[in-house]
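ok so i was messing around last nite and threw this chain in just to see what happens. nothing serious, just curious
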Amino acid sequence: MNLIEVNNVYKQYKNGITALSDINLSIAKGDFVFIIGQTASGKSTLIKLLYRQEKPTKGEVYVGGINVAKLRNSKVYKIRRKIGVVYQDYKLLPNMTVFENVAFALEIFGLKRSEIRERTMQALEVVGLKDKFRSMPDKLSGGEQQRVSIARAIVNNPRILICDEPTGNLDPKTSLEIMEIIDKINKDGTTVIMATHDKDIVNKYQKRVVTLEKGILVKDTPKGGYTK
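result:
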């Protein structure tokens, strides 16, 4: 069975807008998938369904064999433990250091302080920020803040890394640096799903590309570039 299965999924919001129509998508363990499309094509909605930020109006979403659409709110943590999420706007806590921002993601699991420290420093090493663990977010560049966000997303060794426009606020050079980190995480075995508008990145990396158009999946290319 695939790691992710999206079966006949529709999503209609309360305002009447249909964001997704009859989406069918299978993602295997270790895949790297770009989700592309114009604004309002349904990219973010699809991604939010995977980590149960949203529920489908109709259809099924399986992640690691669990039907997340039917998961009770009190059980959502079970799926969140398997998934790391990287956002466009970083979502760092401004009054916490780099170390504290990443460690925070582990503290809810009740681990020993020594294990939290070890795993946090390992995650910061992966993103190249081990030497800035005492820094505050406002002392970092945008690229560095996104690196912290990635470290926080991977500190629990998730099976899936979901990235929602992770380079949207960054310049081209920094975007490529962030992509190198995400690509390495994928090569180390983590499944990566990334919504993006960044044509240069999609064209450069030649991964699987899923194209959405007005909520409909119009193309699924095993290895391709950015197309309208």
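not much to say yet. The mean pLDDT is 93.
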